[in-house]
Design goal:
4-stranded antiparallel beta sheet
């Protein structure tokens, strides 16, 4: 088996808000092709972790390394890093007055300097990949939540990123729409996409992810394969899974 390269390394990421420590010395490596499910209760620091990775929030301490090089906290370095890291937001973050095809094309124009005509062609390809080829000229308000989230995924993929970060991609959806988004994510995993996914979907973590990272109070208390995680006798994990089952 070919040894997979480490594509992303987090070293002692910490973040506090108003004196409250949300992330505490979080460190782990991500290898090419990893599909990592980040689990934890509300307030555990999951979304903060993703946003610190992509410098949407500036960590108080710690470093991010991409392909062996430190991501400096300069505008140029962060911009270069973000061009290689896709981000799928929990609540879509689509631009309401732009057609779907233009929402997806926009990063290519703004970041890569591509002409609109070429960017729209690339956007169309990605939208067809998520089964939205018939919605190119629609506006976000004309789509269901599941369709809007698939647009968000297409927008992240159009830059051909090396890694994709997804922040609770199904939490804003009606239960009936979760499946269509999960099918897209499953396809991406089968294609070998490297992903870190903050999620509460335990079935995803069991059957699609190859690693589960569990956060409690801003610290990693488990980092294992799904089978080991879900069979864990740890008090923290058992309590979390019991609480999650009660909610569902």
């Amino acid at each position: 088996m070919t040894e997979r390269n480490v594509i992303l390394k987090l070293s002692n990421l910490s973040k506090s808000f108003d004196g409250l420590s949300v992330l505490k010395n979080v460190s782990f490596d991500v290898k090419e092709g990893d599909v990592i499910a980040v689990l934890g209760s509300s307030g555990a620091g999951k979304t903060t972790l993703l946003r610190c990775i992509n410098n949407l929030i500036t960590p108080d301490e710690g470093e991010v390394f991409f392909k062996g090089r430190q991501v400096e906290r300069t505008r140029q370095s962060i911009r270069s890093f973000r061009s290689k890291v896709g981000f799928v937001f929990q609540r879509f973050n689509l631009i309401s007055h732009l057609r779907i095809v233009d929402n997806v094309a926009l990063p290519l124009v703004k970041v890569n300097g591509m002409k609109w005509a070429d960017a729209r062609k690339a956007a169309e390809i990605q939208l067809r990949q998520v089964n939205l080829g018939e919605k190119l000229t629609s506006y976000p308000s004309q789509l269901s939540g599941g369709q809007q989230q698939r647009v968000g995924i297409a927008r992240a993929l159009v830059m051909n990123p090396d890694i994709v970060l997804l922040d609770e991609p199904t939490s804003a959806l009606d239960p009936s729409l979760v499946g269509e988004v999960m099918r897209v994510i499953r396809r991406l995993s089968l294609e070998g996409r490297t992903m870190i996914i903050v999620t509460h979907e335990t079935e995803f973590a069991k059957h699609i992810a190859n690693r589960v990272i569990f956060l409690k109070d801003g610290e990693i208390t488990a980092d294992s394969c799904p089978k080991e995680f879900f069979e864990s006798k740890s008090d923290d994990v058992t309590e979390f899974l019991t609480d999650l089952s009660a909610i569902v």
